[in-house]
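Researcher: Last one for today. Full complex below.
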Amino acid sequence: MTPSSAYGPALRAGPTSWRLRPRPALTALVLLAAAVLLTGLGMRLGDIPMSLAEVARAVVGDGPDHLVVMELRLPRALTGVLVGAALALAGAITQAVARNPLASPDILGVTPGASVCVVAAIVATSSAAGGAGGTLASVGIPLLALLGGGVGALAVYALAWRGGLDGYRLVLVGIGVSVVFTNVKYWLLTVGDVNDSGRAMVWITGSLNGRGWEHVVPVAVALAVLVPATLVGTRSLGALRFGEETLTGLGVRPDLTRSLMILAAVLLAALATAAAGPITFVALAAPQIALRLAGAAQPPLVVSALTGAVLTGAADLVARTAFSPVELPVGVVTAVLGAPYLIYLLVRARRKARS
Amino acid sequence: MRLRAVDVKLGYGDRVIVDGLDLGIEAGTVTTIIGPNGCGKSTLLRALGRLLKPSGGEVLLDGKRIDRMPTKEVAKILGVLPQAPTAPEGLTVADLVARGRHPHQTWYRQWSSGDELAVNEALSMTGLLDLGERPLDELSGGQRQRAWISMALAQGTDLLLLDEPTTFLDLAHQIEVLELVRRLHGELGRTVVMVLHDLNLAARYTDHLVAMRSGKVVAAGPPAEVLTEDLLAEVFDLAARVIEDPVAGTPMVVPIGSLPATGERARRNGALLKD
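Model: Here's the assembly. Have a good evening.
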């Protein structure tokens, strides 16, 4: 008797072998199709509304619409899905390392650090040298966000490290550092010029407005490199749910795994934040939704990334059409959708603890 | 000598628990470490399994320093079952046992037919084949402990370190686990080192008994030589008769009562001498 049903089918060819998990694989395919569809739907919107067929024709043809679609609409839509994917992947990693479904890259110091840096720059430069705003916005802000995110993450990591990296300690230190950064940000907003603060607020909320290829490329490159890299480490990441001693006994190096995975999450979150500002709740909610869609015990990385892409793509569609012609920043919609979800998670966690 | 601790100093932070201890584990034996609570027996086992890094001295696996070997290579030779291990919520028995194959896998070879075979064998050896799809948290204590041992078996290591594998189990389940250990040793020739509290069971299922007190090895050898009335007084502050186990013929401890702590007894003896 072989209990092969307990393992599911295996996929073996030459020296390679995998366990085939039909449900996550199918979920991923459906989500991929949804992400492509949402990208197309996003490209319909603009000064001249188009049908999906017109969008498709404009992409392949070289009429006057081709330029509009390829230079304005495609990069914006792509920024949305790619940023969503990057944030969700960062979130899935963070939740696995922290062993906590409420963890998100915010607690890694990335988004709070990026926000402080960008707000400081906007408040400090713009009122002094009025004309510098344009250049600052297109080149400076993403770089500053990246820098701030890196510094924030480094601060959290350094404070959390104590002869090893403990997930629980990481969460606590992260929350502490976030609060400090957030308050510095608010202080900067209050001392700054009203107009500057207003511009800074738009960035803080997270927006896809006016995003071009220069925003797409860094996130796309990060995903192209880090998705395969994190997949190589996914076995060890899954093992992290066991106790520390069991891990060591199995030949896993928990601190190394955690450090490398956190590094990947920081890069993903920082580049995503640099491209679109700190879009809230995607990193928190997408992995938890993916987990339920895939019927897995831990957020699966690829399904999480695709869920993030779909979530952000859909949120942007809502943001642009719900109160048309007024366009909301995408971060407002993800927050409005995400907050009730967060409450649901908290209520559920408390119920479970009580039962 | 497969596994050796040489002059090891062990502790947590500034607290030293074991200092200058030597211990060797022969291939193909079952060794049990006994001693009172806090004597450092689990600490020693953790150091032997490279879960704790000695602050002095060294642990040698097949003559090589264990902390300088790649941990994944160590995991192919040496399996460790920690005291009260924790598993993720909802994990099935088959998934737990499959995790034991971790050191043999790489990112592109995650579930070879060899893996599947080893997991099936481990499940069948522990009598858990039918429970593969059951979540671990639904099992009884004895079944759960067998599942963890099954994971260590799937790891396919020659050496197996078990830290109090019978804790929280009723007597029948304790026997069940120890009989499994005996079969691992007898049928598969595995070398087992474990920490046990029950002295009679330790005597019955062990080739080599190591008695510890206050971080020192007080006596080591076959149970019949180690488990004496004098040793019980010295190590456990316990007054006891040691008789022959009518079933196994091994020493059996029948407690009489606790003795004052060794230090106090020594002082009293001193006082008596003066009188």
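The mean pLDDT of chain B is 91. Chain B has two domains: 3-227, 228-275.
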